[in-house]
């Protein structure tokens, strides 16, 4: 029998200390609650990223990524296939360590559209219920844009988001805390071209601070140096807003927060009605501990939030046959397609840039364009980013170039600063056959089942992707590219090809316990002292980067936790 040491009870325990766990810890500890933050990875500070411009170590060998030998997932496109474990990173990069994926994100920062939060109601009102394709399980979020807008403001002020105008997006109650980042000649070309096409370009809101900034909690963020090494890297200057330089230091300064790295939660303990705490393993010694808590906040990544609930038998699992149950429901990824353009008569300094430096348009996003004669819903924002090309992984060559040899080398050198990409973060709408459950065969290092991901593009996703790909091609042609790449394949989702770390759903929010696992405060309907915070709450994936909505919902959830701790009971 494995010995378990029972620890003193705390007010709140967070399972994971990334963006969501950090926000919950900061807000709850400021309110006087005692918070324990359990993080399975190591601790990290800004000084840990000093002069670490090692592309091989961080970008290609994933120093800041999850250890897939201990905990991974299995994948299949449909229920007729056997799922196999993901042993190497591909489509997305799961984070590990204090700060989580918020340490190695790029910094592109979007609010979701007002349309997103009431997508089903808005669709039926404008187009009729028959517009919703068979098999799509879109639903309203149980919260409106106006209700979530103040929490977007909180996130933006905490992170020091840099931006000016954002046409075709929701109304703002306050301006951005910092001005937009500098534009570049490549971005200027995109902006000029799309303006001439009658579209509405702007510089993307970014969590790479355009100037030195002190946030409302007194945390100091530096100005971006535009030297790249953002995505997959921690920021050595403390200029990219991440939990490590914002909410975690804020929580620690209260004296009410205890951070425990190297602490891997393996089960949520409960009595059938409420959670009593969590069981975790010290990854350095193998010792097991029970951490009792009044409130358990699952604040890890989408897959782990869902896996922990299923492995702990907490909540009702989703059944794709009956479409009943909610835990595991509405898993979504993102429809990401784009066009490479190669210029013989233009040259750009593409080695400079930052993770959130981009120009974008929203003309083909959400319901900003008429879908009456289109056979899909939603859309995506179209971007031209200058993220600073790194030398190993970024050597695009025109279509028809051999994949190796003398000609490949010549073309790779020639076009390193002459090739750019226009792409889209396209929406992904939920389908009855896309979901998460426990794998019946494969287990993690502790003997618990791995989470199984069953996902493929729906016909709706494919049609949306094809439409958006055509828009990116038109823009690239208008920009004057000499060579333009072919449209990307949307036949099947490929987990081996990197796109973005935007995985959502599994513990979705809503106003009805029959169709959602958590309410608008991300409080579980079936266990009211459990709050499940993260991208797992999204009923669908919008046509934007997912991070800001995750942060806004975490601020709302922290209010719910504080209220529950003081008053008890379920929130509405």
Task: Describe this entry's structure for a reader.
Keywords: FAD, Flavoprotein, Oxidoreductase. Belongs to the GMC oxidoreductase family. GO terms for molecular function: flavin adenine dinucleotide binding; oxidoreductase activity, acting on CH-OH group of donors. With 572 residues, the chain is of the alpha/beta class. The chain contains 11 helices and 22 strands. Strand 18 and strand 19 form a beta hairpin.
Give a short overview:
By secondary structure, this protein is of the alpha/beta class. The protein is 22% helix and 20% strand.
Q: Which SSEs are present, and which pair or pack?
A:
Blueprint: E1 4-6, E2 10-15, H1 19-30, E3 35-38, H2 55-60, E4 73-76, E5 84-85, H3 114-117, H4 119-127, H5 145-159, H6 185-196, E6 202-203, E7 213-214, E8 220-221, H7 247-253, E9 257-260, E10 263-270, E11 275-282, E12 288-298, H8 302-311, E13 329-332, E14 338-342, E15 353-361, E16 380-387, H9 406-415, E17 419-426, E18 435-443, E19 449-454, H10 459-479, E20 483-484, E21 504-506, E22 530-532, H11 547-567
Parallel strand pairs: 1-12, 2-3, 2-12, 3-9, 4-19, 12-22
Antiparallel strand pairs: 4-5, 6-15, 7-8, 10-11, 11-12, 13-21, 14-17, 14-20, 15-16, 16-17, 18-19
Helix pairs in contact: 1-7, 1-11, 5-11, 6-10
